[in-house]
Amino acid sequence: MRIAYVCADPGIGVFGTKGASVHVQEVVRVLHGRGHEVHLCATRTDGPAPADLTDVTLHPLPPVPKGGAAERERAAMAADAHLATVLESLGPLDLVYQRYSLWSAQGMAHAARADIGGILEVNAPLVDEQAAHRDLLHRAEAEAVAAAAIGAATAVIAVSEPVAAWARSFAADPARVHVVPNGVDLTRITPGPRSPGGGPFTIGFVGSLKPWHGVDVLLEAVAGLDGDWRLLLVGDGPRRDQVDRQVAALGIGQRVERTGAVNPAEIPGHLARMDVATAPYPPLGDPYFSPLKLYEYMAAGLPIVASAVGQVVDVLGDGRAGVLVAPGDVAALTAALDALRADPARRRRLGTAARRQAVAHHGWDGTVDRILDLAVPDRSGLTTTGVRR
């Protein structure tokens, strides 16, 4: 197929290091690896393409200039018209795959006009999120964009049920909204022995340093551990200074390693340094995320200690692939980590079960296949004349 993959979100560098960037790369990697001709339309890149994606054709979209919220919002809305021009210039396409962003509906509009498949991937209720955590001055316009994009899509792919419920509130046909959780590259991330050198019991965290990831709770929990241990924090984010201050205040600076931002290709090496991996989310009102870190931990065959929130419960709820603790409960997190440190056999059992579950249900290949099946159910013998809706 000839596929246009669209990421018009000015906050996501498609070749960057944060979770959303990895998500884009993984979906494009699967599509490209299947022999499809992929055209990547993106507002921001944050660096060169990974080596295996250098022959994916990049079509830059206009950047959104810095300035006040009103100016940025108007510029982002105006930039969507340029996306329509770019898609027209590509000639006949079989599919438009768009990562939903706050101000862009032209990807799905183009698919509808061309009578081809249109996949809208929705990772968060962005209108509500923007209004709650940032500035949103043109809310009615943002809701109109969401309704237009969701209404025009052949299939709307939500990463969790709460996201799907939000998308259905804008959908002309709610039956077109489907839940497909995130995945993991099972070839890139595999179980392996600890890196040479052994060393103390290592507790790991991968992710951005943001309030809703609960790193402050994790620091309090590990500070309560006795004996020889270390904490490996892989990632960067706006709370880096608060993390450093808390580490100093707790007197655990010699035991904590913070890597800063790392290239996705480096993640497997850091996972191999961990004995236990954590997802210590605080109490959240309506957790809607599908955490990439959870699937990466599972693919690496690591035992996991995670907060019992949202989709984490669905994935680890039976207790065979990880340990669930109450969100924000420092003492429970400390106890769970201490118990796993004392029980290597249980760690092995949990890690083996986690890898098995990742292989059975969460590989990106199978995830992308499920998504394509929803929008383009019959791909055999397809030509560039287009897919009937």
Structure notes:
Strand 4 (about 95-100), helix 3 and strand 5 form a beta-alpha-beta unit. This protein has two domains: about 1-185 and about 365-375, Glycogen Phosphorylase B (Rossmann fold), CATH 3.40.50; about 200-360, 3-Layer(aba) Sandwich (Rossmann fold), CATH 3.40.50.2000. The protein is built from 14 helices and 13 strands. It has a seven-stranded parallel beta sheet, sandwiched between helices. Strands 10-9-8-11-12-13 form a six-stranded parallel beta sheet, sandwiched between helices. Mean pLDDT is about 90; it is low at about 380-389. It has about 400 residues and is α/β, with parallel strands linked by helices. Helix 7 (about 215-225) runs parallel beside helix 8 (about 240-250) and helix 7 (about 215-225) crosses helix 12. The longest helix has 21 residues, at about 70-90.
- What share of residues is helical? 40-55%
Task: State the separation between the terminal residues, measured CA to CA.
Answer: 15 Å
**Which regions are unreliable across 5 or more consecutive residues at pLDDT < 50?**
381-389
The tally of structural domains comes to 2
- Main pleated sheet: 7 strands, parallel
The CATH first-level class of the largest domain comes to Alpha Beta
Task: Give me some keywords for this one.
alpha/beta; 7-stranded parallel beta sheet; Rossmann fold; 2 domains; 6-stranded parallel beta sheet; 389 residues; globular; disordered C terminus; single chain; 15% strand
